[in-house]
Amino acid sequence: MKTETLLILPSKERSANLETGSLQFIGNATVLIRFGGVTILTDPTFIHRHERVSIGYGLHSTRLTDPAMEIGELPPLDLVVLSHFHGDHFDQVAERELDKSLPIVTTREAATALQRRGFRQSKPLDTWASVAVEKGEARLRITALPGRHGPPFADLLLPDVMGSLLEFHSPQAQPFRLYITGDTLLFDDLKEIPRRYPAIDLALLHLGGTRVLGILVTMDAEQGVGMMKLVRPLRAIPIHYNDYDVFKSPLTDFQQAIDAAGFQDRLHYLRHGETYTFRLSRQAAA
């Protein structure tokens, strides 16, 4: 059953730009999304090169890159969308420096862990449940989509993970749909996404081919191409690659696989700190 809750954010703006939005790639799966005066941060990780995060069961991963900015350099945030509670998606810097009053939309498991750490506005979403966000004139909906962090025999040892669909609304335009895959592998439940949402404008693909004890737990190049074939986004941006030493499938592997599949015109690549701007399509006149 699909359920929806309402989140109303305080606003001081009298008017907002509801025609365009932007995504700035901070690094790993951390992206700064802006639309209509709403500022969203995804999967916040801000440790630096050579520093480590815990990935559970006494295992650690070392960062190979630096984030494009520090938490103190971010603009004022309205909310966080967190795919799951792993150290390379919510690290010790985020826990220490993020405002504890920020709403965090995430899995039920992650919300419980965050609330224990003082993030009292953590908002759990079950799969297919949504939160409608309002700030001034801006309207958007965040829906939790299926995700599975590993193969069936290993999934019970891994945290629950969700994909996210962000739908940005404007009275004069069609909704813009942004799909963030989260740290999922391809599995049958994902087939329901294109049935419910056949028109995805942009996808952020969590890649990297992460392997823990030899087990694949995030999409590699081949699975990334499979995701493109499944959800058929108009455009896609790869993220979550080359940033940690547990990532075994480099971006170059994905680029080669995308070219071989003939999807190169749909891909847009961002370096750390670079920004992608999107525009809502105007509705056809009646």
TrEMBL record:
It comes from the Bacteria. GO terms for molecular function: hydrolase activity. Gene3D superfamilies: Ribonuclease Z/Hydroxyacylglutathione hydrolase-like (3.60.15.10). Residues 40-241 form the Metallo-beta-lactamase domain. Keywords: Hydrolase. InterPro entries: Metallo-B-lactamas, RibonucZ/Hydroxyglut_hydro, UPF0173_UPF0282_UlaG_hydrolase. This is Putative metal-dependent hydrolase. It comes from Nitrospira moscoviensis.
